[in-house]
Amino acid sequence: MTVDVKYRTTASATGGRDGSARTEDGSFAVTLSTPKELGGAGGSGANPEQLFAAGYSACFIGALKVAGGQLKLKVPAETKVTATVGIGPRSEGGFGITADLTVDLPGLDRADAQRLIDAAHQICPYSNATRGNVDVGLTLA
């Protein structure tokens, strides 16, 4: 697979799940903490699953807009994508993640909204990166 890279960014983490992460340009910095469900203390820091959920939901809206242009459908300004990301042990060993996207496209006909979601799932870089590796559920709100 060849990718014609148009943008590249760099971020670093220190301390693992109980450390911190920041982008090289300093535009984003976050304190990390391990959730109690994964044996951590919890705390006010974010975790990698939350960051993945935020990134996937934002990226999917971008993909909906591209799909809307291709399908000649206007994506409502109030569109909301909620990503729920889960983590846990895999039966094959190690850990895996799941992702469920709930897409709210207010004012769109349900058939058109579903066409947009299906097309966006083929366009979205997160969807393409996870396809075949992560169980991704798609729900029209």
UniProtKB/TrEMBL annotation:
Single GO BP term: response to oxidative stress
Region Disordered, annotated ranges: 1-25
Pfam families recorded: OsmC (PF02566)
Similarity comment: family membership: Belongs to the OsmC/Ohr family.
UniProt name for this protein: Peroxiredoxin, Ohr subfamily
Biological source species: Methylorubrum salsuginis
